[in-house]
Design a protein that fits this description.
The chain is built from four helices and three strands. The chain is mainly alpha-helical. The mean pLDDT is 91.
């Protein structure tokens, strides 16, 4: 799906809000995929993962170190993401 600038900003805000709500624990990508779709965005997993990657590159999200099941990647919002 091709997103215009306004829709892309709404999507990124939605993702950041979900991660802010998850707190320090963060949440896995499948949870974000579901939340984005519930919000009305009709995107596939790859499109959403691409936006999460963008937010990681910008320093608004960070990976969460996990001891148990490290293969199940989790992310959390950073201070910069909260300030945004």
């Amino acid at each position: 799906m091709k997103l215009n600038a306004q829709t892309r900003e709404l999507l990124r805000n939605n993702i950041l809000i979900q991660y802010e709500a998850s707190g320090r624990v963060g949440c896995p990508l499948p949870t974000i995929y579901l939340g984005v779709r519930i919000a009305g965005f009709k995107l596939d997993d790859e499109d959403i993962a691409e936006e999460v990657s963008y937010l990681l590159d910008k320093g608004l999200l960070a990976g969460v170190e996990k001891t148990l099941s490290p293969e199940n990647v989790r992310y959390r919002i950073t201070a910069e993401g909260r300030d945004y």
